[in-house]
Amino acid sequence: MKKEDLRSSQGCGGITDRGCRARGPQLILGLSVILGITHSSGQSQSGVDADSGRQARNGLVRRRARLHGVPASGGVETASFPNWHSSDSLSPISRWSPGMEFRILFPSDNPPLAVLVAARISGVAFSPDATLSSGSPPMIVLPDGLKLKGAFVLLRYIGRISSIAEFYERGPFESGKIDEWLEYVATFASGSEFQGACNYVDQFLQQHTFLVGNNLSIADIAVWSALAGAAQRWESLRKSKKYQNLVRWFNSILDAYEPVLGELIATYIGKKSSAKAATKVNEHQVSNATPVNAGSEVDLPYAEVGKVRLRFAPEPSGFLHIGHSKAALLNQYFADRYKGEVILRFDDTNPDKESNEFVDNLLKDVQTLGIKYKAVTYTSDYFQQLLEMAEKLIREGKAYVDDTPRDQMREERMNGIESKHRNNTVEESLTLWMEMIAGSERGKMCCLRGKLDMQDPNKSLRDPVYYRCNDTAHHRIGSTYKLYPTYDFACPFVDAVEGITHALRSSEYHDRNDQYHWIQTDMGFPKVHIYEFSRLNLVYTLLSKRKLLWFVQNGLVEGWDDPRFPTVQGIVRRGLKIEALIQFILEQGASKNLNLMEWDKLWAINKKLIDPICPRHTAIIEERRVLLTLSNGPEDPFTRVIPKHKKCEAAGIKVTTYTKRVWIDYADAELISANEEVTLMDWGNSIVKNIEKDQQGNVISLTGVLHLEGSVKTTKLKLTWLPDTDELVKLSLVDFDFIITKKKLEDDEDFVDVVNPCTKKVTSAFGDSNMRDLKRGDILQLERKGYFRCDVPFGSPTEPIVLFAIPDGKSQPVMRFAALNGKH
């Protein structure tokens, strides 16, 4: 099908400055991303405002006739926009006229691509507005303020007002087939069904030019958008010869409207799209970005290269944990990708919990993560400006001082009951505000609240607290202030003042996004884009700093860097390479799925990084170790120099001593049968002749002969061993368990009830003499025992080297230490 044919089949007059006069719907990535659909509000997909929906249905017959240019009495007219300024009783939502411009609102993380494409190619005037909170359905707002909601509703509405003949409104059967295709589009959102959907459409297009009838319809635009939104997955199929009919159809639409489609996809999908002109249309869009994982990228909506400023804003009330790390690394990823910058801001608004110790350790942790920040700022840098802003809002009637007791205030907010002080005069609030600033007894009874909407279903908008009094000295500025701003008040202010373009927030703050933007609007600032990602939740793990502090204060751990803790310092001390943490987090991208993740995947990534390079050493468990005497072994010990890692020269070399008597683990000794040939690793074969046991049947010694000409391929047992010399070093092998015994705590469950009573196991062992050279932080493998990190290096022959066991990603029972006694 030629470009001219496609346009002539619709009566399209070519591409204008508003785009080609054709029309199409929206499906973007995933079911919600492809269609911009949400069910979180509890509304149906056809979530039209009640009045406008009823009015639209009442005028359906008249609109259909006018839309097709066919009067009710018959005859044919030239197709044109319907004239809805007639005398029928339709509301302004139905009174459409050419040149009228409406707004299309949607969340920045879920633009309704098909709706936007349909409007542009139809020549419908609109302005995009990506200020809705994440999860909200897309919406059209007409000049008179009336609204339509829901991706399907918007798509059909634009189809009805489009100048393209039969873009949606057709006869009953074909209109029904269009609706059928719109429902089918959801199939493309399922990863397992994507290729099946492609195959189905490909077969259908064997004998059809369009999906419905002989004209382009919103059904074509919907399916096309679903494929374009699938990005690289579709691109790989498109380049193959598997779906020739589907590719032909896809390319014909792309070629016909490439400038329009290229611009929209470059804006809302980015480099992942298949539009050939995408990167040419908007030179500010990202073209070559570092992928988050193999073959995929995460986009930051409305980001322009060189104009992105982000902030990572931890509270200095604890050490950085793995959950914070996700936020920090995503900020760094987007800053790198868009050639922007990251501000490291300490959100120090709660002097009761904060300290300089935490600031210092957070700086250390951020450096460990490799975060490259432009500047370090503190919310406390803006305390005076925040006070001035608070007074400004009081004077404008947007905030008031309230002395309602805290419990009563909480109950009133839950029930939508206004405070008795809500409608106090500005003078009354200013008087109490001065008392708060002075820290007087009267002032301490009060708080400052924003005057938002006490009836809003979103309870975060029910007059949140902006300021509270607190006599505690601040760790940076001492006792200068007697009151401090809340996070809800300070964050939108400082973000705006520091010029933050995108605020990355975990989805736990989703209900507060509207509050964030409301407060910025009241302050007179433009809205900062919010980008949501899911909080990183891991099994058997507490991420609450309050709960972690409880373990520290009760002596159940050594401190915030305890290897049982999910802090950055804790997991690094346990043996995690920071590269593994970065890979683990970025592989998830900016997912909003609230999944409870296993630690196994993280440790498996870590193993892949350390196994190829870490040196190999040997250890024998001290308890019940067994001496093997080799009758034909060397009378005098001798040494050989061998590599620490047979496949990694950079791991270095070690000296191995060979003696007539060698130590082996008891667990190995009890598996050996008399006259069995075994392999002594890095030496050769030996035949065990005699096995001596005590009265209880425990093996206490072995005798045998070297059989170095024997083949190691024929032996069942490959044994680690150590020479019987005074050069061996003492080892403490330490393994850890989770600090709680339940995978996931319920909301009403007290973590104290599931504290694991046994989380640390220490095993005494001996190691080869080369381990004297280990330094703190070195990672090694004890052959046949696993991977370890050196926590305490060699100091003296009487003090053991302390090695922490590193998990390798293989699932182990949580209660594997339950038989041991003791709290630690």
UniProtKB/TrEMBL annotation:
Per the record's keyword annotation, is Protein biosynthesis included, yes or no?
Answer: yes
Q: Which reaction does it catalyse?
A: tRNA(Glu) + L-glutamate + ATP = L-glutamyl-tRNA(Glu) + AMP + diphosphate
What are the record keywords, sorted? Aminoacyl-tRNA synthetase, ATP-binding, Cytoplasm, Ligase, Nucleotide-binding, Protein biosynthesis
EC number from the UniProt entry? 6.1.1.17
Q: Name one Pfam family in it.
A: tRNA-synt_1c
Compartments where located: Cytoplasm
Return the Gene3D superfamilies for the record: 1.20.1050.130, HUPs (3.40.50.620), Ribosomal Protein L25, Chain P (2.40.240.10)
Q: Which intervals hold domain tRNA synthetases class I (E and Q) anti-codon binding?
A: 718-791
Domain called Glutamyl/glutaminyl-tRNA synthetase class Ib catalytic: residue spans: 307-611
**In what residue span(s) does the Nuclear-export cofactor Arc1-like N-terminal domain sit?**
181-253
Q: Which InterPro entries match?
A: aa-tRNA-synth_I_CS, Arc1-like_N, Gln/Glu-tRNA_Ligase, Glu-tRNA-synth_arc/euk, Glu/Gln-tRNA-synth, Glu/Gln-tRNA-synth_Ib_cat-dom, Glu/Gln-tRNA-synth_Ib_codon-bd, Glutathione-S-Trfase_C_sf
How is this protein annotated for GO cellular component?
Answer: cytosol; methionyl glutamyl tRNA synthetase complex
User: Annotated Gene Ontology MF terms?
Assistant: ATP binding; glutamate-tRNA ligase activity
Provide the Glutamyl/glutaminyl-tRNA synthetase class Ib anti-codon binding domain boundaries.
614-703
GO biological process entries: glutamyl-tRNA aminoacylation; post-embryonic development; reproductive structure development
SUPFAM superfamilies, per database record: GST C-terminal domain-like, Nucleotidylyl transferase, Ribosomal protein L25-like
The UniProt family comment states: Belongs to the class-I aminoacyl-tRNA synthetase family. Glutamate--tRNA ligase type 2 subfamily.
Name assigned to this protein: glutamate--tRNA ligase
